Amino acid sequence: MSSRPNNYAFIDGQNLNLGIKSLGWKLDHFRFRVYLKDKYNISIAYIFIGYIQENQDLYDTLQKAGFILKFKPVLPDKDGKHKGNVDADLVVQAMTDFYENHFDKALIITSDGDFYSLVRFLYQHERLEKVMSPYKQTCSSLLMDTAKEKLIYMDNLKEKLEYNKKHR
User: Whole-prediction pTM value?
Assistant: First the structure.
């Protein structure tokens, strides 16, 4: 008797948000979580995101949709812009879960080449399900070269995942 795979998603929240925004649509987080579960057998979906108190409604929505939020403190830069660099946190969580054998396969959602080493490691250990890039135009060539046939883009998912008030 075979059971369903126990796959985890590791999501670069800022990269996902900016990538989808650059495509000109808004992601429905509830539909996205269902999609991840149905399409990739994702049991745990982490979103790594900078914490800004004014975004509490977004955080509540993400949690209600079934995402586990991993926050990074955010400080404004000299121009007053916020940046929550979550790269190290995502890698540490993925490696911890890998070594503790929590998941069968990992889905990495980002276009950021900073995740090259993690993607390469998971690929070499046959534990990479896919790399899902929010936006093909900004996807790092490092990811393109490393993930090869495991790289997919979200450009064509608008119909399935776009936020629409009718669905609420």
Answer: 0.92
